[in-house]
Request: fold
Amino acid sequence: MALPITYNVRNVFVRWRATLATILGVALMVAVYVLVQALAVGLEKSSRNTGDPRNVMIVRKGSTAESSSQVMRPQLKLIQYWPEIARNEQGQPLISADVLVLINLPRGKVEGEANVLLRGISPMGMELRPQVSLVEGRWFTPGKREVVVSRRLAARFGNFNIGDTFKSAGQVLTIVGWMDGQNSAFDSEVWLDADETRSIFDREHYSSLLVRVVDAAAAQSLTNRVEADKRLSLRGMPEVAYYSAQTMTAMPIKILGGFLATAMSIGAVFAAMNTMYASVGSRTREIGTLRVLGFRRRTILVSFLIEGAFLALIGGVLGCLFSLPMNGYATGTMSFESFSEIVFQFRITPWLATKGLIFSVLVGVVGSFLPAIRASRLPVIAALKAI
Reply:
């Protein structure tokens, strides 16, 4: 004979004062778990949301990122006229030789400084990145020490308003526009003309090449050709794949989230255990009555496990609701690939919320296991005599 689930559900709400602390404890645990994991999801989404499937990224063999790569000018001259590369209406090859430089700048609302990624792009660079748009001001004019900054970076750093200036490498750079990268990695960058960047920061070579190919077959052909040419010592890959692989920064945050969730779950388990033990103690007569009515020990065991799981599930739902206002909130951290400021948003996905709920139910089941065993083993006569 199975106990109706409504019995356990009603007990949670009838004894709500005793269960409130446990529910709030589980809610806090789930909220922290979801928010920390949402940071990692936001970082990954920022990288995976970057790039154009028609583009191929070319970097030095052995480099893990553009910042550690070098592409020499003779290599650029050799590659730019290959037949796999698409051309614009004027017949110019769609290829951008970029230079990446780290610059240190003061923050805006808080004290301190942070590294910012400055990307020097070639004239074709903007055309190759259609997801980046100018939202205010104008694009820079090569040779005039002008830059365009991300609108999201402008909210985090001082002197990033249009018309402001900042000094780097002994040169004064003027901000002439704000750009929007549509929640991509480009939202963490400052753009300047590539050759001007090489001149200001004394860089002889480029960091990477971004190429628009004719079609998918040309992309594979170009990648194979770059890999096979011994003169180049370069490697090519789809731009989307390159940025998808740049997710190392999210891993420490995931580990931290797992550690915090584990530590807090131990406390939540003991809180659930304490609540369930108190519930067993206050319902001794009920349990004895159930046994007299013919309910088996395993039925009572399962009944209390269900009650503990439902108790924790309520806390899990509240935890998810507590974390929802942070969804889409913009923040930033240091990138472990480039050691620069990276801007991203909290991303609370349906799957992440589901994992939080599953986690809460597991905590409830584990926390109620020992009290459920105790309840199922209560002697019938002693239970009926209990006051």
